[in-house]
Amino acid sequence: MGQTDAVDQISVLHLRYFLAVVEEGSVRAAADRLRIAQPSLSQQIGRLERRLGMRLFHRHPAGMTPTHDGEQIAAVARTFMAGLCSDKAGQRPVSRVSVPRGTEGRVLGLLLDRFGDGVQFVRIDSARAARALARGDVEAALVRHPLPRLAADCEVLEVYDAPLGVVASAEHPLATRQELDWVHLRDQRLLWFDEQRAPEFAQWLLGVCRERGWDPLLYVMDPAGSGLVDDALARSSDLVALRPRPDSTGPAITWIPLTEPPIERYLLIGRKPVARR
C-alpha cells in the first residue's frame, strides 16, 4: 500500500482517539474517557502511526507526550474536528440516520458526536440503505464496506475501522492462545448471518477468509440477539465468529486477535453535502 493510500484510510475515529491520548497523557486515561478497552486504543494509535509513517508519541513510564510531529498532527486534527462540530449553515439538517443491526455503541457514539443527541437511529441493513436514502426515509446511512451501488450525488466518509478477531467459547480449545493464525481455524465452523443483509460485505469477508486458507462451513444464525449468538458460541468447541474487539465480554466468551486480520470499515453515506463537514 502506498503512503497516499494509507493516509486515505485514516478515519475520524483515529483522530478522535489520537486527540484523547494527547489530552489525557496516557492510553489508560484516554481509554477510560472514551469507554473502550485499553488494548483496542493502543492498536488504533499504532495503526495511525503506521499509516502516517511517523512516531506521534514519546512513551514514558508515567505516560505519553506528543512528539514534534505529533504536536503538528494534533493541531491539524483539532482544527478538523472543530469543523465537524461547527455551524451547519447551508447544510441540510440530519435527524434520521440508518444503521445496520449489530452496530457497536462506540460507532453510534461517533454519529452522536457528528449529528448531535437529537439524531434518531433507524435500523436498516446495508443492502437497503441506499434505497432508503434515495426515498428520503433517512438523511444519512451507515453501511459496512464494501459499498452498495450508490447514486451519483452521494458522498462517502469513513467513520470507523477495526481489525476483526475470533470470538469463541472461553472453554474453546483455541481460547488459551494469545494470537491465532489462520491455519488454526481450518477445522472451525463460522457463525454467519443472512447474507441478504449485506451481500457485498459477506462476499468480501468470505473472500478474505479463503485467501488466508480458510474456507469455513457456515453456521447461519440470523436473526438473533447477541445473547443467543453468545450462547451458541459458548456451547460449541468448533464454532467461532469474526468480530471487532468488544469493550467487554461475558465470562463464557473470549476474543482472540488474528494475524493479518480483516479490517471492518463503516462508511457514512449521504446526499451532498450531508456527508461532509
From TrEMBL:
Domain HTH lysR-type: from-to ranges: 14-67
InterPro entries reported in the protein's UniProt record: LysR_HTH_N, LysR_subst-bd, WH-like_DNA-bd_sf, WH_DNA-bd_sf
Name of the molecule in the record: DNA-binding transcriptional LysR family regulator
Superkingdom of source: Bacteria
GO CC annotation: protein-DNA complex
Molecular function, one GO term: DNA binding
Family: Belongs to the LysR transcriptional regulatory family.
Source species of the chain: Rudaeicoccus suwonensis
Alphabetized PROSITE patterns for the sequence: HTH_LYSR
Pfam families listed in its UniProt record: HTH_1 (PF00126), LysR_substrate (PF03466)
UniProt keyword list: DNA-binding, Transcription, Transcription regulation
